[in-house]
Each structure stands twice: as C-alpha cells, then as structure tokens.
Amino acid sequence: MRFFWPLLALFALPATAADWHIQSFAGTGIPGFSGDGGPATSAQIDNPFGVVRGPDGAIWFCEYTGQKIRKVHPDGTIHTVAGTGKTGYSGDGGPALQATFNLPHELRFDRNGHAFITDMKNHAIRRIDARTATITTVAGNGTAGYSGDGGPAVSAQLNQPHSLQFGRDGSLFICDIGNHVIRRVDLQTGTISTFAGTGKPGPTPDGSPIEGTPLKGPRSLDVDVAGNLWLATREGNQVFKLDLQRKRIEHIAGTGKSGFTGNGGPAKNATLSGPKGIAIDRQGNVWLADCESHSIRMIDARSGNLELIAGTGTKGNGPDGDPLRCQMARPHGIFVDADGSVFIGDSESHRVRVLRR
Predict the structure, then answer these.
(1) Is the pLDDT of residue 7 over 60?
(2) I need a labelling partner for 4 at 20 to 30 A (CA). Which of 53, 66, 161, 197 fits?
(3) Domain segments of the chain: what residues?
C-alpha cells in the first residue's frame, strides 16, 4: 500500500508537456500493409484513425485508407482482425477477415467484448462478434440519408457516421456527422432515435437543452465516469459536455473560430482547429486530437485551461522523445488507457504513437 498512494497522487497532478515522453507504438511512417505476425514498429500501416484497448489486452485501431482493423498484442506483435484491404461493403454474416470496408473511422467495445466500427462511407455501424469473429451490420442500410427514427436501426439511414461510444445503460451513441446529429441505438430492441441535434448545422448555445438544439459537425464522442457524453465538433471547433441528468449542453472549449491559439489559458477562449478525437481520463481531463493543428491538446479539469501536450502546430513526422518537438500529421484518434498512457492515431504519419509519463 505504501507504493500505491504516491502513484495515485502522480496521476492526480495536472499534466504538462514536460511530464510526458512520446514514442512510436506501431508503423514505420511509410504507408502500406506489411508486418503481420512481427513487431508493430516494423509494420507498415495505412492512415490509422480510431484507437482503443480491447478486452483481450491488445490495442486495436482502424486503418482508414487501409480498409482494415488491426491490433497490437501486449507482446508488441501486430495482426489484422478484419478487412481484406479492398474497398467495398461485403462480408456480413461471415468472418470479419473476409469483409470489406469503406473508410472505417473508429471502433469501441461493448460490455460483452463485441467490437463496433463506424464504416463511414458505407453509412453503417458494423459489429464483430467477440466469440465467433463474425461481422454484421447493426445500424444503417448502406445508403446516405436521414431516416428511420423509431424503427429498426438496420433499416435507418445514416450520413457518414464518424464516431461512436456506449452509454452507461449500454445504449450506442453515434456521431452522424453528415446529418449534424447524435443518434442513439437501443441495442436491446434495435431501435434508433435522434438524441441530439436538429438535422441542420447551427450554433450550440451554452446551457441549451440537449433535445432540439443544433450541432455543427458532431465529430467525436466519449463518456466520463459519471456517464455524461463529451462531444467535439469538427466544423464548430468546440467541445461540449452533454449532461444527461440535467439534460443540458455545456460549452467547455473553443470560441467557434478555427485556429491554434490560447494554449495555457481558459479553454473557452482558445481556438481549435478541426478537433477529430476526444478522450476523457480518470481525473476528468479532456484530451483532444486537434487534427488541423497537428497537435494533442488537453483541457485541465482543475483549472479549465487548455494545454498543448504534443505537436508543434506544423505538419511532420516525429521525432520520438520530447512531445513538444514531435511533429504530427493530422491526428484523428485518441485514447487514454487505464494507466494514463495516451494512444494517438497519427494518421498521415502512418503511425500509432503513445504518450507516457
């Protein structure tokens, strides 16, 4: 016990860039497909987006233009778990390895260990069964549109779904970005509904009700320990907390203008640049993959300030070491692990990186 409390105190302290070290976790920096069965750092990967730790202990990630789902085992070896690498929409009812995708964006796991994937250009959410590795579609009929509320999710139309996350009750929330809404799927009944947004882009006033308030490009979702949803808006360049008890939307960060200003000051006064990934750590800090500024930024839960943790603001590829000297290239995915490590889908660097203290 004498060693537990100092460790806990370490992770409770506000994070600054000086606390962190960044290194490559997967990929060589050259796009392509190679390396299955070998070290992940020697493998070629192609445009990694969403990243998450699976129930098997591996780090899973989507290869956006590689049209695959791959994972890195705890021993550092890499394998493909879904996708042939060809573009398409096929394979439902069969092995996930024989399926085709059309720009998979993000993946998450439900409480039973099944993997759910946003298959963006197929306008669908697909599921890989944890036991059989069979793939199926659970939402979206494959045609872009906005229809189906109140009916079966598999018959509904989505429009370029980008992100997804599970609520505390097991509901599946989807960033239906092309429709400027968040959809909710009751996985017990298979019914879909609109949870937030009006279907048209617009400003999101602080304190507005979740229902009936416009959203502007809802891009990425996460859930905090209290069960609240956190949302990054791509076109809106803002971060919001959706308080499910109060049924209100709280503005957390971003003026609404695109930019790369305000580091070290109040998050509400800062400008963001197309944030495309969001993750909440155990202390309530909000981590952002601020895509077009090629950086990782963090909203400190204690101070409300926005801190630059990694990246220079200029597109590039590395080097490892000091995160403020490590250039990135349009990062999309971000995930905070149980030990506080932060995994990044550094998309156009064709690497998965990790920040560790």
Answers:
(1) no
(2) 53
(3) 26-196
